[in-house]
Every structure is written in structure tokens, then in C-alpha cells.
């Protein structure tokens, strides 16, 4: 696909995805838009829980809240929201979610160009659309970035990796607020997974890896939402008593904005396939990514230093939320020593 820098100013609205990891990957599209349209203004509409990500993307001038429940059509509310945006005089809209309802707001905002991949009978709401060839565009980030200049033919040869920016003053204040010391080597672990248990590496495996690395001088900070408190506590319970002072759980204690800023102060991450994995990658941290029922073939972490770990049992990837056989071998047979070795490999240059 050929991209040509445009001289005319564009006022662009992107309807962003609802998932944290997907929004991180959408930054590659934002970067491409700023490259192709030098004088453009970029606004992104997103649910409240993903807007802290947009605050850390310098390409985004404005974020607009989407005050609607996920999974609901809310036709009248979407029509009203679209009409309320007419005064913004957007010149083009790019719709990243594949749903019909996601295209309603740009349609009722009378935005002249409305761009997206085809899906859910929404073609009448769009001006530019293409049929997605999943073999040509195997990665989500390729599908997003292609919409910057819709030829819908070939993926871009070079796609910028997401890079979140944190303000050092804010980071320092947040660390002080949580009484965290930025000294020595700090490992972020992200043991949660909103998708389901079939993506969660066992707590005992996380604890084993943490015990090994703490013994080598690492500190461990556990990240996660309030839904991850239980697994964080299970990990802490298996941390050896002599090591417990070096392991802190932040699960359920931080906002997303605070989690991003705190993670920016870490040196490496071990994570399930989750939104926090993508945040760690976008902060340019060495990332050890653990895969159970899912695969990195569609949404891998876009970091420069990555190790993708998985087992090769015959039933994975099944993409199920819970193991259909009840054994979770794809996770239980992924030994902690593999994660520890991967951390050694990823950080070897820094330690020399």
C-alpha cells in the first residue's frame, strides 16, 4: 500500500477500541496518521477506562469520552452523540471496532469520509471500506495501520511500534504516593487476564519465578485490577519469607494511569497475554509473554525485546476462556525456569 504525505489539513476522528491492549496497538495507526497528514488534528473517542492511554500518546490532541455501555446498541444515544459532534467539523473518521454500532456516531456527525473494514452490514454508514483479507493482514496492528490511507490492498511495510510517554515528575510523585523505591532491578509481573483462567499462568509458577529472581537481587511489583487481588495474594503467600519485603502487590490499588506510570519505572515484565502486557511493551520494557489458550499470531507484544513462551501440546491454542478438558496443561507445563531464563536473556546486555 502506498502512503503519500498530504499537504492539506485534516481534522480526524478515530473511534477507538474498547480493550486496553487493542487501544495500545491503535497507537501505530495514530503515528501513521501524523506521518501522512503533517498538519492534521487527531481526536480519539474511547471508553473512560482506556482514556489514560490516550493521555500518554503524544499523537492524540484530544480524547472524547464514549459514555455508553459496552455491548449495547444504544441507537438513540449514539445518534445524539454523533449530532453533537457536527460542530467539530471533522473531515474524516476511522472506525476501528468491527461492529455496526461503532459506525453510527461518525455517520450522524456528517463526517465526509468514514473509513473502516467491512463488517456487520454497516457499509451504508461508510464512504470507504474494504473486505479484510486475513491472510494478507494477519496482525491486528496491520489492520489498524492500513486505515490511515485506505487502499485496502497490502499491509504497510514498516509500522511504528506503540510507545507510551510518561511524565518523569508525575512518575516520581506516583512512586512516592505508593512508597515505592526506584532502586536496583525491578520486575513487573502481570498475573491477571480479563479473558479467563485459560490465559492465567498459575500463581505458584509466578511465585517460583519471583523467588528465583528476588534471590538474584530483583524487586517484584505485582500489577493488576481489583479482579486480580486473589491471584496476587496467592503469589504473595508462596513468596519465601526472606523475600517478602522485596515483593509488593499493587493489584486493585492503582488507577490505569498510575499503573502505567509505575510500570515505566520497572526494568522488565513477565505477563500473561493481557492489556498490561501490551502496556509494558509500549513502555519499551523487556517482556516475557506467557501464552496458554491464546496465540501471539494476532496480537503479539510490540516491544523490541520480547520472549514468547508457550507449550506445544496438541490442544493449544484453543482460544477458550476455560480449559475444555479441565487440565490447563498449556499453562501448568510452562515451567517457571523458562520465564527466569528468558529474563536473563533479555536483560543480559544491561547487566554487563
What would you note in describing this structure?
This protein is of the alpha/beta class and 352 residues long. It has 2 domains: 11-148, Rossmann fold (3-Layer(aba) Sandwich); 168-351, Rossmann fold (3-Layer(aba) Sandwich), CATH 3.40.50. The chain has 12 helices and 12 strands. The protein has helices at 20-36, 51-55, 75-84, 104-108, 140-145, 168-177, 203-215, 229-237, 256-263, 275-282, 329-332, 336-351, and strands spanning 11-15, 41-46, 62-65, 92-95, 113-117, 128-130, 185-190, 218-222, 247-249, 268-272, 287-290, 306-309. A 6-stranded parallel β-sheet has the order 3-2-1-4-5-6. Helix 1 (20-36) links the parallel strand 1 (11-15) and strand 2 (41-46). Helix 1 runs parallel beside helix 10. The chain starts with 10 loop residues before the first strand and ends with a helix. Residues 1-5 have low confidence and may be disordered.
Structural class based on helices, strands and sheet pairing: alpha/beta
CATH fold descriptor of the largest domain: Rossmann fold
Helix-residue proportion: 25-40%
Number of helices: 12
Cα-atom Rg, whole angstroms? 21 Å
As residue ranges, the low-confidence spans are 1-5
Please name the CATH architecture of the largest domain: 3-Layer(aba) Sandwich
CA(first)-CA(last) distance: 42 Å
Our estimate of the beta-strand percent is: 15-25%
Number of strand segments? 12
**How is the main sheet built?**
6 strands, parallel
Spatial sequence of strands, sheet with the most strands: 3-2-1-4-5-6
The helix/strand order is EHEHEHEHEEHHEHEHEHEHEEHH
Would you tell me the overall average pLDDT? 93
* CATH H-tier superfamily of the largest domain: Glycogen Phosphorylase B
Amino acid at each position: 500500500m502506498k502512503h503519500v504525505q498530504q499537504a492539506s489539513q485534516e481534522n480526524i476522528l478515530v473511534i477507538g477500541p474498547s480493550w486496553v491492549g487493542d487501544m495500545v496497538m491503535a497507537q501505530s495507526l495514530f503515528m501513521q496518521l501524523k506521518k501522512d497528514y503533517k498538519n492534521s488534528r487527531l481526536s480519539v473517542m474511547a471508553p473512560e477506562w482506556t482514556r489514560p492511554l490516550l493521555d500518554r500518546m503524544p499523537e492524540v490532541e484530544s480524547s472524547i469520552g464514549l459514555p455508553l455501555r459496552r455491548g449495547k446498541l444504544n441507537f438513540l444515544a449514539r445518534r445524539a452523540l454523533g449530532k453533537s459532534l457536527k460542530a467539530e467539523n471533522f473531515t474524516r473518521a476511522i472506525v476501528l471496532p468491527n461492529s455496526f454500532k461503532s459506525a453510527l456516531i461518525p455517520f450522524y456527525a456528517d463526517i465526509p469520509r468514514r473509513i473502516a473494514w467491512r463488517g456487520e452490514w454497516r457499509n451504508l454508514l461508510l464512504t470507504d471500506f474494504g473486505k479484510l483479507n486475513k491472510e494478507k493482514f494477519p496482525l491486528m496492528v496491520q489492520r489498524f495501520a492500513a486505515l490511515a490511507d485506505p487502499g485496502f490492498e497490502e499491509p504497510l511495510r514498516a509500522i511504528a511500534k506503540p510507545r507510551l510517554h510518561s511524565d518523569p515528575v508525575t512518575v516520581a510523585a506516583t512512586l512516592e504516593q505508593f512508597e515505592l523505591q526506584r532502586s536496583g532491578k525491578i520486575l513487573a509481573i502481570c498475573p491477571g487476564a480479563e479473558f479467563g483462567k485459560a490465559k492465567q499462568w498459575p500463581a505458584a509458577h509466578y511465585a517460583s519465578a519471583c523467588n528465583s529472581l528476588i534471590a538474584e537481587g530483583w524487586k517484584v511489583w505485582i500489577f493488576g485490577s481489583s479482579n486480580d487481588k486473589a491471584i496476587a495474594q496467592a503469589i504473595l503467600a508462596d513468596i519465601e519469607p526472606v523475600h517478602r519485603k522485596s515483593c509488593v502487590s499493587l493489584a486493585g490499588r492503582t488507577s490505569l494511569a498510575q499503573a502505567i506510570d509505575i510500570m515505566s519505572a520497572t526494568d522488565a515484565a513477565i505477563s500473561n497475554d493481557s492489556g498490561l502486557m501490551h502496556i509494558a511493551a509500549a513502555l519499551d520494557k523487556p517482556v516475557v509473554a506467557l501464552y496458554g489458550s491464546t496465540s501471539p499470531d494476532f496480537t503479539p507484544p510490540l516491544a523490541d525485546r520480547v520472549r514468547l513462551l508457550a507449550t506445544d501440546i496438541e490442544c493449544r491454542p484453543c482460544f477458550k476462556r476455560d480449559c475444555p478438558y479441565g487440565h490447563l496443561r498449556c499453562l501448568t507445563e510452562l515451567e517457571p525456569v523458562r520465564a527466569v531464563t528468558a529474563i536473563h536473556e533479555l536483560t543480559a546486555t544491561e547487566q554487563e
